[in-house]
């Protein structure tokens, strides 16, 4: 019996190492395949897809802004993954973040709230010779101390822009609320107060409106709500917004691109922010937030559940559907007549592809709108770099300043009687 067993082992012995080598090779091949798929390494780099009307301004912008037509190259090893771009932005914001020195301003609101913004003076003269202020609205729950805001402000200051950055109501650490409400998806009150202050404090300044993510919705809604809000505004730039909260929340419940997981993480962050103001929200008179609402907040696992139990009540909406409908810029953005740059990324895991039909249709119909869609970049990532390490400045930082510089010089060239009105008289043409 032993002889037979030895014979069998001798017979299969040479094949066993080869079989194990084959299994190892297959395992390595599988891991490499997963890495290539997850990192999207086979995706080619490309220049942004730009949709626009063929007008003198659009032709000038494409000529003056090479970043809009030049190939955007993310870091080779991980930059083609929208998830990693988004995760890196979410974790650290930017690399080698500067610390610009600003002054915090406090603005009392009509309902007892206290809005705040930080003001950063330019670090030199603008190339156009004019006094220009960027009025900036950050993303959800963000403020002037976030790394991506600091990096963008520092870059803008060095190019001759004064910067005013809104701190979303309730977002600043160690800043107590003075009324029973926080920032919401589309409330423009605090942003309007900041802009009004800038216009009064600097009568000669012209404004560049900039919004990131949720901030993009707020600034576009603000400009479209009232034609007077566009006075002294040179242009508007919106980056990575979703345009319609109602449609966006429907896609947030889907699992493709791990969107449901992002929803869970964002909901967790919002819960922490709201609960940090729990005592104030429950203590102040006239609040319509009760203990039952807070109990539902604890159990919430999505932004929609938080909006239903808490956020919609700050402005008295009867339903979360009404809240999303009234707070979205989709019903106001077509009234914006100043030059408007809308920037999104195809691999943004937070903004579903179906939402991008809104800016594309807008840019096909309106001569002042340019829609720029990059192949890569994630949500507010847009990192650039050779192989592994990203550059301190992102494509997003540079393209906003490049576009606004071009607009400033375009306005400078226009006859005084045509400034800020040339777009309203242009007829749309095919582009």
What does this structure look like?
By secondary structure, the chain is α/β, with parallel strands linked by helices. It is 42% helix and 13% strand. It has helices spanning 2-12, 15-39, 56-64, 82-92, 147-158, 189-201, 214-225, 245-252, 259-275, 278-283, 291-299, 303-309, 320-327, 357-365, 395-413, 422-425, and strands at residues 49-52, 103-108, 114-120, 132-137, 162-167, 206-212, 233-239, 340-345, 369-374. Strands 1-9-8-7-6-4-5-3-2 form a 9-stranded mixed sheet, with helices on both faces. Helix 5 links the parallel strand 4 and strand 5 (162-167). The longest helix has 25 residues, at 15-39. It is globular and about 60 Å long. The N and C termini lie far apart (86 Å). The relative contact order is 0.17.
Main sheet overview: 9 strands, mixed
Q: How are strands sequenced across the largest beta sheet?
A: 1-9-8-7-6-4-5-3-2
State the share of residues found in helices, binned by percent. 40-55%
Order of helices and strands: HHEHHEEEHEHEHEHHHHHHEHEHH
What's the architecture of the largest domain, going by CATH?
3-Layer(aba) Sandwich
**CATH fold name of the largest domain, please?**
Rossmann fold
| Strand-pairing-aware structural class | alpha/beta
Count of all domains = 2
Residue share in β-strands: 5-15%
* Measured distance between first and last alpha carbons: 86 Å
The coarse silhouette is globular
| Name given to the CATH homologous superfamily of the largest domain | Alpha/Beta hydrolase fold, catalytic domain
Domain AB hydrolase-1: 133-386
Organism: Xyrichtys novacula
Family: Belongs to the AB hydrolase superfamily. AB hydrolase 4 family.
Active site: 213, 348, 379
């Amino acid at each position: 019996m032993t002889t037979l067993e030895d014979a069998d082992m001798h017979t299969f012995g040479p094949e066993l190492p080869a079989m194990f080598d084959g299994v190892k090779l297959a395992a390595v091949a599988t891991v490499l395949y997963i890495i290539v798929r997850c990192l999207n390494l086979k995706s080619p780099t490309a220049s942004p897809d730009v949709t626009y009307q063929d007008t003198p301004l659009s032709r000038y912008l494409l000529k003056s802004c090479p970043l809009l037509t030049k190939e955007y190259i993310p870091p080779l090893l991980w930059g083609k993954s929208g998830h990693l771009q988004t995760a890196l932005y979410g974790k650290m914001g930017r690399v080698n973040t500067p610390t610009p020195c600003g002054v915090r301003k406090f603005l009392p609101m009509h309902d007892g709230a206290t809005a705040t913004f930080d003001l950063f003076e330019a670090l030199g003269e603008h190339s156009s010779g004019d006094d220009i202020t960027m009025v900036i609205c950050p993303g959800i729950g963000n403020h002037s101390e976030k790394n991506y805001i600091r990096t963008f402000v520092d870059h803008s200051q060095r190019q001759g822009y004064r910067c005013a950055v809104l701190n979303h109501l309730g977002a600043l650490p160690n800043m107590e609320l003075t009324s029973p409400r926080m920032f919401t998806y589309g409330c423009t009150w605090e942003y309007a107060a900041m802009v009004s202050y800038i216009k009064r404090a600097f009568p000669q300044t012209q404004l560049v409106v900039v919004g990131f993510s949720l901030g993009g919705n707020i600034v576009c809604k603000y400009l479209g709500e009232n034609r007077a809000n566009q006075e002294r505004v040179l242009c508007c730039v919106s980056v990575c917004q979703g345009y319609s909260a109602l449609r966006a929340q429907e896609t947030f419940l889907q699992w493709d691109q791990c969107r449901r997981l992002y929803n869970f993480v964002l909901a967790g962050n919002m819960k922490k922010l709201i609960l940090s103001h729990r005592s104030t929200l429950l203590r102040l008179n006239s609040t319509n937030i009760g203990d039952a609402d807070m109990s539902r907040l604890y159990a919430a696992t999505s932004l929609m559940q938080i909006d239903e139990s808490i956020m919609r009540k700050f402005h008295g909406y009867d339903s979360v559907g009404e809240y999303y409908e009234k707070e979205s810029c989709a019903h106001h953005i077509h009234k914006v007549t100043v030059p408007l740059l809308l920037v999104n990324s195809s691999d943004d895991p937070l903004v579903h592809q179906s939402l991008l039909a809104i800016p594309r249709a807008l840019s096909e119909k309106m001569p002042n709108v340019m829609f720029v869609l990059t192949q890569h970049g994630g949500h507010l990532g847009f990192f650039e770099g050779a192989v592994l390490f990203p550059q301190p400045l992102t494509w997003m930082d540079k393209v906003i300043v490049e576009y606004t510089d071009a607009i400033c010089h375009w306005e400078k060239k226009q006859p005084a009687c045509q400034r800020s009105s040339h777009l309203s008289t242009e007829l749309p043409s095919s582009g």
